[in-house]
Amino acid sequence: MFGKQIGIDLGTVNVIVYVRGKGIVLQEPSVVAISRLDNRILAVGNEAHAMLGRTPETIEVSRPMRDGVIADYVVTEAMLRYFISKVCGRFERRPEVMLSVPVGVTSVESRAVRDAAIQAGARVAYLIPEALAAALGAEMPIDTPTGNMIVDIGGGASEAAVISMYGIVTASSIRVAGNKLDESIASYVRRKYNLMIGEQTAEQIKIAIGSALPLEEPLSMEVRGRDQVTGLPRVITLTSSEVTDAIAEPLAAIAATVRSVLEKTPPELVSDIIDRGMVMTGGGALLRNIDRFLTQETGVPCHVAENPMTCTAVGAGRGLEHLPLLRRALETT
User: Fold this and answer.
1) Digit-coded pLDDT (tens) for 215-226
2) Is 172 exposed, middle or buried (0-12, 13-18, 19+ CB in 10 A)?
3) CATH node for 140-176+248-308
4) Average pLDDT of the residues in 106-135
5) 22 phi and psi, to 5 degrees?
6) pLDDT tens digits for range 283-321
7) How many Å apart are CA 229 and CA 215, to the nearest integer?
8) Contact 27, 56 (CB under 8 A)
9) According to the model, what pLDDT value does residue 160 have?
10) CATH annotation of 5-132+313-329
11) What pLDDT, on a 0 to 100 scale, did the predictor assign at position 67?
12) 21, 109, 318 from 68: Cα distances, Å
């Protein structure tokens, strides 16, 4: 009996697991709740996410991944062990795992991800650049000598890359993504309305009424928070045009990264990209009008992949099937 082959998208916000032959089997927030009294792990994933910002002093809820890389090694290892054991039975052979890492991480950061996976129960751990995994998952023809451009906007990092012949030609990443959009919304509400809101509320606002460009029919929603002046709870109504203003700055930074990749791309590949357009993946691609915004900023047509959230995990799993061809672009144990 061969061990399972697993692709893991180890994200700042979500961990998504793909098992070869089964598809996506698990999608949970990368959050861990730890007891401060005896350093025991109390909850992982959805259960821990429900506790964010709602715990007593004795329980600490943390995100062990920050900006796409490991911030807390011990907790990440425990989280990976939990997710791998959830997917694999106790008596099965240890699985082969492929994890995605952002383009441009240091060797120390990438080694930490690999070691954590081995410690958590993987037999072999391969690392695949996130952009390459996302392109594989979005079923782009990256095996051909043509230019394929992918823009992956996650929770902690955004990256843009041009891929040809299973390899990355040019790439750039910036640590501005979904989380920064949430922070911008929270600080905008704090500046304009003197209202303190939590990160979960900011994320709900982004999902419910957020848009990269002004909408023809503006949306609005009620936002509850704590008044900074009186210290008491208060409710305000926020419109989608205000959210568009709030997130303009981080979006401009993401657009600048995409532009910088296009500037470094060889002219032959640029002509392919103009024909085909670029493909967007990651949770950030679900923001309304983000494709139109990037088309406007770069002049290159932009499409959102079919299931943008799960592309990277699917691609990491498929990467195990194409191992001999991908060897050049991968780091292995």
Assistant:
1) 999 999 999 999
2) buried
3) 3.30.420.40
4) 91
5) -120, -25
6) 999 999 999 999 999 999 999 999 999 999 999 999 988
7) 32
8) no
9) 95
10) 3.30.420.40
11) 82
12) 27, 10, 21
